[in-house]
Amino acid sequence: MRRPRRASHHDPFASFTPNGASMILEMASLDI
What we know:
Low-confidence stretches: none
Oligomer: single chain
Shape: elongated
Structural class: mainly alpha
Order of helices and strands: H
């Protein structure tokens, strides 16, 4: 697995793709 240079250290899931990051954020907010 390759990680982007600007991958958030506290957001490992967001390191997949820019689009994935936004999707993860939405899912996370819904999960809360």
